[in-house]
Batch of 4 targets.
Target 1
Amino acid sequence: MSLGFDSEAAFCRAAAGAAVSWRGAGIPRLVAGLAGELGVGKTTFVRALLSGLGHAGRVPSPTYTLLEHYEIGGLTVVHLDLYRLAEPREIEFLGLRDWLALPEVWLLAEWPARGGAFADALDLELGIGADADERRSISPRALTEVGRKALDAWLGTDFKYSL
């Protein structure tokens, strides 16, 4: 299944809505991968999601820092960009085990496949695409029960998918 958006504004509303839905469903820990080509809107999705949580500050792309984190109402959101990893084992230097030990943390990783075994920890994968007319799409896929709960909260229980 793919969700289509005719504008960046609609795409951003969907991302903000995901944040509100996930928070409202009481999802304390979520590991989500954002997959897609360069420039399709992975960082835009995270910016809008953070906005939906109430973050009003700057949200830089973690392209060069690899990791940015935000504390919002007791929730830690960690935004990763794994594109520049030279090899998957470099992910260990980012302290993901420490982040995942927190009671309420959402890890949102761009280019999750570049993190090797990290991809096995994903609860949810969001394939993001864009066409020549700047229309965006999201192809969500639940990989665990937490991912299923996240999709149910965001898209409703009528959404058809399988683990």
Target 2
Amino acid sequence: MSGASVLAEIPGRVEKVFLNPDNTISANGIYAVNFYTLGLPHTVIVDDYLPLYDNGSGYRTLFASVSEDKGLWGPILEKAFAKYHGNYEHIVGGDPNYSVRTLAGSPFYDVWHSEMTTDELWTLLKEHDAEDDILQAGTPGTSHFDAGV
């Protein structure tokens, strides 16, 4: 979900992951999500049967939540990502850089900013932000820069 939140910074990026052209709830409960495997598109089809639990006052999704405006994109995206990897257990934790690469198909590189001055880092961040590149923090001392989608 952190990868999806990084993509969502620019309007339209998350919407491009879903293959339903009008971005509405499917009457049949079937959704196609486009991921990338080794840079090539890979479509994953999922239904809208989501894992739920009873919290005492109704049912809630077990993992990603339905948004306040009743949007299902988060739980559907998470289910497709879990299917892509085999199950929900396989997507616990991990490197958010990998999820962005799977969602966007974009190349990336790490910047070891611990070896840069503050001014050099700020200049680099502004350059990538101006290009609408995907910026995310990595392990301590690094940042990831993904090509714009």
Target 3
Amino acid sequence: MTDRERFLTMLYNGPLLKSDAVVCLCGEDAVPRLHTTAEIMASKGALNVVLTGGVHDPPARIGAEALVPRLMGLGVSHDKIHVDATTLNTRDQAVNTVALALEKEWRRLLLVASAYHLPRAFLTFVCALHEAGASERIHIVPVPVSHMPWTGTPDGVAMTREQLAAVERDKIDKYAEHVAGYEDGRDYLAHWETAAYLPEEEVE
């Protein structure tokens, strides 16, 4: 298997663990991501929600602030919602969310993204963790919005999710400065796969 294949196998097949917060990447395909986020909160899978994304150009992209009423309508209390409407790209979302997690002393985050976007989003978050010296302090759990059809298109977008997956793969190379490598992403997942099952005092 290639490094990419090993990474993707682990990325899409890990356990869904309880967390301090669920991070919903707003923008493209935002509504399905929001519903997955609400489902996690309803099942008590997380204590807080981070809505991150400042680009608001509906129907293709819906920003974080516009999604707050929708999320509340899905049963999430306003005091549980943290909004970052300053971010303009995945790199910004990762850097700001890692900073917030460190400020709040959150140890585990569920990262909700469309399945086609999740590989680049996750690797961008891993890179941000490395830069903040927090790779062994914060556990990012990838959560793909996987029930959406690959042959379907997000609202307001011309390409199918399958086609967008190819675009995302190219962006991993294009934005390599701010994206961890496949082997690095796999190693991060492997580390936390082991640590998640250790007593907390052994993880420190």
Target 4
Amino acid sequence: MRMMIPRFAVLVALAVSSAFAAEPAMRPLFRDFVGLNGHSVVFKPELYKPVCGVVRDYHPTEWDLMGDTGKLPDWPLARNKVSWEKEYGSWHQAGLRIDVCLQFDNMKAEWKNLGPDAFAYAKSFAQNFGPGGKWPFVEWMEIGNEPGLYDDASYRVMFESMARGIREGSPKMKIATCNVEVGPSDRYWKSVDLFKDHPELYDVLHIHRYAIAEQWPVWRRTYPENPKVPYLSSVQKLLDWRNANAPGKEVWVTEFGWDSSTKKPDPKGDWAKWVGSSDEEQARWLVRSFFLFAAMGVDKAFVYDFNDEDKPQLHACSGLTRHYQPKPAYHAVAWMLRSLADYRFSRVMKQSLEDGYDFEFVSDKPDAPVIWALWHATEAEHVMKLTLEGRKVVRAERMSLAMDDARAATAEVSAGGDEIKMTVGERPCLLWLTPKR
């Protein structure tokens, strides 16, 4: 599992409107946009396929190379006997697309010959499990997660060696960097400038972001639109860097989420002052983040995490399930994906901390309804005035928090000519409209 305690300075972010500056010509369908972080062996693909189209696996490289980095494993078995054929085959069978994040963060001292060993390992893995391989289940490979224990020079050797190995082993495999930020490298990320001179070696830049309002020892998180935290603004900086230095490369948010536990921390323990979010806050902030990232031009976004054991501490209760039982966030994300799977972001109709948010999503099918996502960042009830542009209302639903949440899935809409008034709140609503003729 990942271990991350980010160090963000609380600063005033860019104006919310600046977060939507880049406008790619075609956005991904939501079935290809909504991702989830998983973990080998303990991930249950049938349970999680309603809440994601893509799974990101924290793949333990040490399982494959245990004891000797110069000797390749007997594929499809890792050296500890885990079968990647069975593991990734079951994910693939469930209809999930797979992104493998190679976890070698704690292996620096174990490499016998860093460059050649990394090249041979990455080439062999891609050759066997990438497109065209014997077990072609993996579409993307990330070269490290948060490899801050490697200095920049060592990581560059690792990255370039693995990337060249992957390109040689499976030319159709897509390659992603480790977690990056605009600015200098740190313990949990590398500077994106490390990749500036080698655009041929990667296809995706990825970033981890958490909306943290208070740092250690509180770790209190806040709503995603909050301009006082470097959440949307840091992602936008990476998008801006991409536009200036690596046009055409994708940008993924590979970790974002909120902790929510039913328990209080031990008042005498290390996490005594930790403050979590409520289950409903987790649900609504995840769904709104997906909408916000889609509008910004992010290509994929992955919730952290898939499951938790209800531990009241940082990054230990961020699951969509708790003890493998769906939390409200699970039902909320499932509702969102079920509604928008065949839709892609189209345009921003309204974006205001004061007046609310209205984002449009469209299907590639010309006769399919248009869908508007509506919410207010901080108010439980806020009346929005909307112009229908010649369309008619088909139906409206409020974000679900439970299975078959019929009462929560109804929003009151009062029509009057081409304008309507709709009461929205912090729980997003979806409004289906007839296509414009």
